Amino acid sequence: MRKTKIKELLLSDREKSAVQIRGWVRTRRDSKSFSFVEINDGSCLSGIQVIAEDHLDNYEEIRRLTTGSAVAVTGGLRPSPGKGQKWEVLASRIHIYQIAPDAYPLQKKRHTDEFLRTIGHLRPRTNKYGAVFRIRSEAAHEIHRFFQERNFVYVHTPILTGSDCEGAGELFRVTTMEPGNENQAGNDTADVYARDFFGRKTFLTVSGQLEAEMFALAMGDVYTFGPTFRAENSNTSRHASEFWMVEPEMAFCDLTENMDFSEEFVRHLILHVMRRCEDDIGLFARFVDTSLIETLNTIVEKPFVRIAYNEAIDMLQKSGTDFNYPVSLGKDLQTEHERYLAETVFRQPVIVYDYPRQIKPFYMRLNDDEKTVAAMDIIVPRIGEIIGGSQREERADMLEMRMAETNLDASQYWWYMDSRRYGSVPHSGFGMGFERFIMLATGVANIRDVIPFPRTPGNIEF
Q1: Does 406 fall in a domain?
Q2: What is the pTM of this model?
Q3: Which of 10-14, 214-218, 338-342 has the lowest mean pLDDT?
Q4: Residue numbers of the domain that contains 361
C-alpha cells in the first residue's frame, strides 16, 4: 500500500477505505476500549487523530506509546465527530517502529528558542520549526520557478575562489597545508602558497556575483542560488557565517530596471508563501509576530518607497532620534537607521539608492556626479537590509580606477577585466539573503532560527 502524507489526507474530499500513514506520536490518551493517538509526519502543521480499538493484536503496546514514538498506521479515513477536525483514521493495524523514552526532550509544551538551539537535531519536530522549514522549502522552489519562467539561466558558481568579491577581507581560508607549514619557507609568502593545493590563496566564496556577471555578459539574464560564507565576527541576530544567497545578474539593465525587478521579486515570493503556506504563516501570526499579516499585506499591496541616500541621511538627522550610531553623510546606514526608515518613517519597504562611492565595493558603477555609485538596498521592517544590488561598472577605465582606489590587486582580476574589453554592456544585479527573506516571511527575529543548522562565531554544532 502506498504511504500517504497526512497533508494529502486532510485535504481529501471523500472517505477512503484503506490508507497508510507513517509518522511520530504527538499525544495519546486512553478510553476504556480504545485510544486516541495523534500522529504527525511533518508534511503539514496539523496531525491526524487515529482511533486504536482494543481488539488490535498489540493494543497493550499501543497504550505505552509516548510522545516522539514512531509508528505506521493502516486503516480507513472517515469523518471525525470531534470538533476542529474533518477526518480521522480508524486503525486496522499499528506497527510500532520504536517507543520513545519518557525523557524525550520535546514534550507537548512551549520551549524557548535558546533551548531548542541546543538540540538543533530535534527542533524540526516542533510545530514552529517544522513550519519554518516547510516555508523555506516552498520559497526555494518558487525562486527557481520565478527565474525559469522569465528565461533566466541557472548558473552554478564556485564555492572555492581566489577572489574577494566585496573587498572586505572577511574570508574563510581553505588549505590542505598542515598548521605551521606557512612559516617554513621564511618570508617568501608566494612560495608558501605555491605549495598549497591550488597553488595560491584560496577561500570560501562570499558571493557568486563576479562569476555570474561573466555568464550574464554571454547569455543575457542568469541567476545563482547557493551557500556563501563570511568570516565576519558578528554575533547579531541578522548575521551568520554560512548563509544562502539568491543572486541574479541581468545584461542590458540599468539601476532603475534593477530596482523594479528586485521589488517584483520580493513581492512575488511573499505572495506565493502567503498562498501556499497559509497554515504555517498563520502559526507565526498567532504566536511569533501578531503584526505579521499586516506587514506582509503591505509588501504585496503597496509600491516600495524609493529615496536617494542623501535624502535618507537628511530624514534621519532631522528625526530628533538619539541613535546609537551617529548619522552623517559619507557613512553607511546602520541597522537601526534602516529600521527607523522602514518602521517609523514609511512603515513599509524602502529602496535607498545612490550611495557614496567610498563606502561601496569597486564593481558598482560610478555616477556622473563622480561622488556616488549606482547602488541600491531594499530595507524592510524588523530586519533592515534584505537586498543589496547595483548597476555594475561596465567601463574598463573606470573599473581599473575603482580597483586602485580600493587597494585591490588588478592582476588577480584579469579575467573580470577581460569582460569589460570584449563586448561590455550596461548590466545590473542584486543579492538577497535567503535567510533574511525567511525572517521577513515568518516574523522570526533571529537568523539562527531559520537555518537548519546555524554556523555562527564559536558555534559549529551538529
Answers
A1: yes
A2: 0.93
A3: 10-14
A4: 124-171+206-449
